[in-house]
Amino acid sequence: MCNEVPRLNRDTRTCIYLTVELTLQALVDPRRREIVQILLEEEQVVGDLVRRLPIAQSGVSRHLRILKDAGLVESRTEGQRRVYSLRAEPFEKLSEWVAQYRRLWESRLGNFEVELQRRTSALTAKNEES
Amino acid sequence: MDERQVIERVWQAPIDVIWELWTSAEGIASWFGPRGFAVEVEEIDLKAGGIFRYTMRATDPEKIAGMEKQGRPSSWAVVSTITEVDPPHKFVYDSPMGPETMTTSVEFSEGPAGVKMVLVITATKDGMTGGAAMGWKSSLERFAERLT
Question: Which residues of chain A does B5 touch, with a Cβ-Cβ cutoff of 8 Å?
Fold first, then answer.
C-alpha cells in the first residue's frame, strides 16, 4: 500500500517495514483476527459477518473500517450489497519480512558450520594426542 | 499475527561444543556476523530475563561506504532479552525490531544421526503471542496457496 506514496516506494525496505507495522497493528485486536479468519474462507457481506460474530453491526463496521485503512481488506459494491475480501499484499510483505531473516540465518549458519568443524577437528586431534 | 520461519540442521558434533558456540560471548562472536560483518558480544547473561547485547559492525570497506552514502550507520547495538535457557538443549531470546519483537528459539536434541538443531524465528507484536497466534501460519499458507 505504500506504493501509493512515491517517496516511500523508492525504498523497498521501508515499504515492507511500514506494511508489516500496519498489518500487525491492525491484527493485534482478536476480533479483527477473527474477521480475517472468516474472510480467509471466502469474501463476505457485512450482514453475514454480523451473523457469525457476537457483536453488533456497528462494531463489525468499525473493525472493517480499521482493516480497510490498514490495507488488509477491500470492498466492492454488488447491487445493494457491499462485499468485503482480503488483499494479498500485506500478507506477502509479512512473509517477505520474515524471509529476510531466514536469509540472514542461512548465511550465519554457514559460518557456524565452518567454526564447528574447526573446533571438533581440534578436539579430535587433542584426544588422539592424549 | 504470527509469521515464522523454521530452519533445521543436523550436525555430528558434541552437543556441548554446539551449545558453547551458541551461548558464550566468544563462541557467538566467531560466527554470528553475516558476510561482511563482525559481531562483538558485550553481555550475555544466560538466564531467563538476562540481557544478550552485541554490536554488529560492517567490516567490508565497500559495504561501509555504501551504508554511509545511504546515511545508515555501519555499526549498531542489538539488545535482546533472554526468555528461556535449558543447557544444552534450549535457548530463546526476544529482539526488538522497531515496534515488533523477533523471537529466536533454538533447540538441540541428540539422536542417532547427530545433534539436531531446530531454529524458529517468529515475528510478533506485543499481546499476540501464544494461543492468539495459533493457526495463523496454516491460515496464511492456505491463503498464499489460493493466490498462486
Answer: 98-99, 101-102, 105
